[in-house]
């Protein structure tokens, strides 16, 4: 399906504001300065937002969102933002976290993990797992239900979300009941030949991100960097995977869903046609993106109801 005229126009505006990483822009600091000029739609109201810290080496900043409506002991979502492990932060994904809190009726804990290239793999993975352990241990104190814990993330954040489930399986906890993966990176070394150029996120961008994230290419073979390459995905929590038709990450996301199913993990894979990477949470300016948001909310509500 070709992009509709309005969707293509939104994509052109977004692409113009996005740093040409791997092309004219090769420095991470410059890329962040360019990306910081972008303007994101304001998020919807929630009942409360507060900042906290996961203590350790180093301390990790987290931001906690309480939904407008919900139970006394709320289900909990630990959320990891995208950005190729290099860009984005708690502020860029504030609207996404507000949306998920209200859609799922859940407490959302957004994690400010360390970014590359200053902190290469496995720093972000270590931070993600440590944050999930902290949330699990403090869920009741935070106003959440420790028996209904999910992880979620978009793009590179989707990688971190599912990798925490691998680590939890391999290390005996904490118990994670569900994973929501929004157009996730599942193979750092994927060729990404389809939709490689011309649809906002490009193969060139992804190659540059991988160069920043990995100290050497061989690390991309490791399951905690590229979960699609894991020898076994058995024993992971149920999953919902959302992909966009015109996205160079679509094939690896859908391949990961197939691998989960083969391993006996309950999984639903939803491809939304006519969309491109990076539009989750942007239905205020691109109404077609609402389908992705509705699917995410429905998946989380169903998982928490179980």
Summary keywords:
Rossmann fold, alpha/beta, 36% helix, 306 residues, 20% strand, 8-stranded mixed sheet, 8 helices, globular
Q: Would you write up a description of this structure?
A:
With 306 residues, this protein is α/β, with parallel strands linked by helices. It has one domain: Alpha/Beta hydrolase fold, catalytic domain (Rossmann fold, 3-Layer(aba) Sandwich), CATH 3.40.50. 36% of the residues lie in helices and 20% in strands. The chain contains 8 helices and 8 strands, in the order ααβββαβαβαβαβαβα. It has an 8-stranded mixed sheet with strand order 1-2-4-3-5-6-7-8, with helices on both faces. A hairpin with a 5-residue loop joins strand 1 and strand 2. Helix 3 crosses helix 8. The longest helix is centred in the middle third of the chain and has 20 residues. The radius of gyration is 18 Å and the shape is globular. The two termini are 35 Å apart. The model has no long low-confidence stretch (mean pLDDT 97).
Low-confidence stretches: none
User: Average pLDDT across residues?
Assistant: 97
CATH class: Alpha Beta
Strand arrangement, major sheet: 1-2-4-3-5-6-7-8
Please give the count of helices: 8
Largest sheet: number of strands, sense, barrel closure: 8 strands, mixed
What is the CATH superfamily? Alpha/Beta hydrolase fold, catalytic domain
Straight-line distance between termini: 35 Å
**Could you tell me the number of beta strands?**
8
Q: Which structural category fits the helices and strands?
A: alpha/beta
User: What proportion of the residues is helical, as a percent range?
Assistant: 25-40%
Number of domains: 1
CA radius of gyration is 18 Å
Succession of helices and strands: HHEEEHEHEHEHEHEH
Shape: globular
Here the CATH topology equals Rossmann fold
Strand content: 15-25%
What CATH architecture would you give?
3-Layer(aba) Sandwich
């Amino acid at each position: 399906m070709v992009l509709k005229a309005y969707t293509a126009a939104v994509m052109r505006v977004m692409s113009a504001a996005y740093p040409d990483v791997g092309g004219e822009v090769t420095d991470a600091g410059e890329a962040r300065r360019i990306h910081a000029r972008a303007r994101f739609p304001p998020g919807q109201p929630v009942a409360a937002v507060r900042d906290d810290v996961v203590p350790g080496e180093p301390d990790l900043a987290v931001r906690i969102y309480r939904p407008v409506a919900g139970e006394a002991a709320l289900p909990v979502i630990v959320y990891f933002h995208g950005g190729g492990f290099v860009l984005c932060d708690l502020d860029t994904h504030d609207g996404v976290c507000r949306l998920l809190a209200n859609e799922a009726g859940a407490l959302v804990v957004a994690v400010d993990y360390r970014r590359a290239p200053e902190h290469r793999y496995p720093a972000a993975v270590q931070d993600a797992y440590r944050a999930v352990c902290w949330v699990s241990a403090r869920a009741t104190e935070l106003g959440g239900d420790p028996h209904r814990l999910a992880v979620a993330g978009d793009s590179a954040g989707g990688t971190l979300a599912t990798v925490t489930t691998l680590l939890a399986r391999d290390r005996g906890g904490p118990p994670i009941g569900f994973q929501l993966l929004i157009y996730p990176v599942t193979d750092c070394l994927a060729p990404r030949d389809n939709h490689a150029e011309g649809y906002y996120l490009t193969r060139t961008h992804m190659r540059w991100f991988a160069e920043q994230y990995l100290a050497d290419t061989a690390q991309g073979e490791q399951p905690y960097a590229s979960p699609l390459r894991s020898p076994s995905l058995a024993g992971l929590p149920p999953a919902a995977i959302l992909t966009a038709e015109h996205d160079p990450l679509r094939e690896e996301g859908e391949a990961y869903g197939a691998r989960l199913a083969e391993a006996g993990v309950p999984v639903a894979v939803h491809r939304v046609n006519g969309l491109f990477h990076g539009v989750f949470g942007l239905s205020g300016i691109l109404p077609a993106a609402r389908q992705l948001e509705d699917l995410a909310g429905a998946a989380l509500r169903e998982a928490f109801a179980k």
